[in-house]
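Structure tokens please, single chain.
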Amino acid sequence: MLPSISIDNDKETKLTDSDNVKGDYDYSRKTYYELIEKGKESLELAMRIAEETEHPRAIEVLAGMLKNVSDVNDRLMELNRKLKNIKREDPKSINNHTTNNVMIASTADLQKLLKQDAKESIIDVTPTKLSRES
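Here you go.
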């Protein structure tokens, strides 16, 4: 069953990427659980048939079904791991802050600021004569 969307006539409803991912994840997870449960039921039936008939083909089918149920379990775990990776890479969770400082002034104002900054950073030192002793 796909997730349903209710649409209000006054507003347009849009699904975000995270809503789509969550809906797809829930749907896939539910499907995997259903497949695993059906597989377990089928395994029980196949086991009874294999035990009763002891036919090599029935045992072979049982082994294949065991592998299939095991593979579905692995896919379910892989689905969980992929969701964690998607959440980790979610751009909303990454803090990218860019600070732009903008000065709105004339070139004369800029020159005044530079001269003022230069005066504050220049240390005026008067040279003194070193006396040499001979």
